[in-house]
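Q: My labmate handed me this sequence with no annotations at all. I'd like to see what the chain might look like in three dimensions before we decide whether it's worth expressing. Could you predict it?
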Amino acid sequence: MVYPSQSILHIHLIRVLDQSIATLPRLRAPPAVNDLKAHTNYKYLGLVHMQDIAKIYAAQVKELKLQACNNSQKHMTSLTQLDDYNCLLMAISENDVPHLQQVIKITLDNGASVREVVNKLEDAIEGCQLLYALNHQISIPSIRTLRARSTFTTIMPTIGPIRPEQFDENIRNIILNTRDGTTSLCGVSFMINKLALEEMAIHFGKYNMIGGLCWKHSNLVDPVLRTYDSAVQIAQKIHTQEVHLGKEVTVIGMACFSEDELYPVLVALTCKTENAADMEVILTRAIKHWGATGADTCVGPVWSFATDGDATCHAAGHRLFVKKPLSSDSLLYATLSDMPRLNTLTGDNEVTLDLDFKHIFKCICTLIRSPAGITLNNGCIINTMMLLRYLIWLPAQDEASVTKLLHPDDPQDVPHAIKLMQAIVTFSKSQQASIDNSFSTDIDLRADLMSIKLLSDIMESILLLFININLSLTEQVQYLSRYAHLSFAIFRSHRRAFMPYQLYYNTHTMVKNLVFCIWKQQILDPGEKFFVGDSGDDHLELHFGRTQMIGGHNSGCSYSQVLDRLGAAKDIDSVFKRHPDLDPGHRHLKPSVPPNPVAPQILDVPSLPLPYPDITHMDVNDESAELTFEEALIAQADADIPSTRLHQVQPDPSAPPLPGGPGRVRAGYTKVNKRIDMLVGCITDGNLFLVGNIFLMLIHSGRTISLGILHSTSLILNNISRSSINVTIMKAARTTVKITGQLLTIIATNHSSDSLPTLLQFLWNRGYVKSHSVIQGTSDFTECAVVVSIPSLLVEPINPELTFIRLRNDINSDDFVEIKGGQSMWQVSQGALEAACGLLWEKSLETSVPLKSMVSVTPSDTKTFPYQLADGTLAIPCVEGTNLLIASDGERITTCCLCAAKVTDMRAHVGLHILCALTNTPEEVNMVELNKPSRNIPLKCKLCNPTLPPEPGRTFRRALLAAVDAVWRYNMPEHILKEHEEYAIPGYKMMGVPLPAYGRTYTSGMQAAHL
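A: Here is what I predict for the chain of 1011 residues:
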């Protein structure tokens, strides 16, 4: 039997012992290695000092191994550069001008040209002055004669909501009344676009109404000016934002295939708050009233409805014109049903959706200029960094011109986009010999050229049919088919990494519409000419261009001025149609048409299958569906790149200062089109890390941390993309450099049959580690190359060495199927990789990077990463990091030395042993109760004190308190046996007076604790 007084004595003795131990003299820790003097002899050092020195030497050996591997490759690069310098000197001495144009920048004078002087003269005599001068010089009609004898185009304004009579009036006056009834029927394409104007209200005296209000909210006010109060009411509605002034004007026009003239059908003001449902109503009314006025029988049926990049019009067009399959009764069904996977969904009366090809050209170039670039050729990324290195090889290009191509001042410049696409195609054709050379010693160069060749094939397929006047209609459709096949095959593998869903949808919608329109023309009139350039909304954009020229390119015009200028542009087009020699042309893309175009030919349909994946079930209610292409591209640019969450690292005082500069790109460049700093574009400096170089990093995959080999795709310093970065700055502790790269698949060589141990080599098989990417809205997934982004202080650059596959007998040729006929490849030794793995782990410890914050990769094929040897064991694991990761993930299981039980909390378990010993309790204790709170608390014995004073509370706050001796709960049975012998205690004493109810609770709690 143990009493509380004994426990108190034990505790007191333990405290005295602890105080005695604390007063003992402490042993002085040995000085650190850094505190020792440099001339101290090793024999005077202890074991700890020798171990620390050995670790320092081991780290130096690892660094020297990695440096030796890199220096050997640098020496080879320097020799190659010396050969280039010798070629340059020879070209200068021999006066080889074409050769010099490839390596020397051409400087042009910045003086004014003759064309600028002519433009000044034209500005001085424009308008009425020009007409007056021409009247006296070449005897053309004066302005007074024109007003009296000619009929000008008048467009009915949209005052208030859009009504049916506005469509009917414009169709009759502008189209039906001006066309000759003897003309044959032709296909009709409706198109919609918007034009900027000044926000202001206009009084139309002809109607005595106020215009300039948006059509969507103008029904909330009466536009008729009856009294002064009417004008006040309109002004109040505008002031309270119940009615809005028009910010833009929506123009719907009609153009006939094989004609160059546009006919405006609707000109309505908009406040830019319309949704897809509102646009559906407008588009439906336009087509409906085209048939109601009889224009479909006089002019021709509607074949397509074209738009540009407006997301609201896209969603409305998708709902209206991609909603039901082509009927088997249609005349098109017999032909188009033979085209595999061609999307045959159309709208009412077989109307199809059309997208402007010029807008598609701009989007493709914007995609290439984006930070993420475009993924091709089994995961290879093509971006501005790669193109900048290769396009300067063209004889007609230099660094300045290529930089302007890749980063134009106006990303909406269509001719500039076409020049970039043509430059890529030209470069690919000029490097065909290098691409075909499977024994090339430059593996990275050949891999890049093959990817650029694939990109040029895609661009040529969608570009050439619009700019080459010598192609027949069959050849144009063949190019469309080639683009559909190539884009479908790559998009099926890489999805968003190759091309955003919106751009893929737009391009295939354009291809589909052209195929439909060609066969509609075959059915309507096989002998009539058909031009692919008539698709899209080019007619409407040209009309807008003439409208802007009339106003001196001033967008600050009112609604009435827009109506007048649109009508005047229509009249000017009619003059140019009768006198083509007077048309000066325009700077937009002009479809080149041969002088005597041939009629459409009968196409061999079975040889031209057009694959078209089923992406028609697009959720048009999704918010992302109403983003512009640039906004959607920016929104997803960083979504696919996993980033690391690092703790704040301490600044390194020994590191060199980082280069200054703003963190934002200067005005004039959007996020997807920002300029790249080319001040460090010289590649002769051996201390530079270039885009495209190989680097190493530690990667977390499952329950393993291992080394990964990556191919760099972009370098970012202070939020600015760079083509190269100094290695010293890249490795500084306080650097802001971020490196993005693709994880490569590496194959290890087989062990040699010789008895001598040899280091293994690791070869790249031109493959990329891939992971599953779930397709939005479905349960399916696709495989995408793994792309990671990491701070540069946690990477190690490495220069691999060249090797030839056909000269090796220690590899399995089946593992190198991705090379596709090539023989040259690079390799990295096992010793260099192990040394780099140790250095990277030490960096992680120095910067206190949490294990959970390391880049995590889940490959679709676990054999590709972490890298494995031929027998399936891990090739380059980080042993220390893996052990810490396993220890942090699982629970620490220990075994008790007293009872041999496996427990998770040793302190609580041993405490239970001590408690049982103090209370003389058997060891049969339920281990489940370990985590429950202790029930051994002081209690008041009501047998000793039947009448206890009340506990203080709100009612008895002022009651006098009396001290009462407490008894520990576990000692209550001993207390009752000693002080109250007349009572019986279950489990201790069976004879006696039964305990009261409150007494039984004391002993029952103790019995539960003992079980």
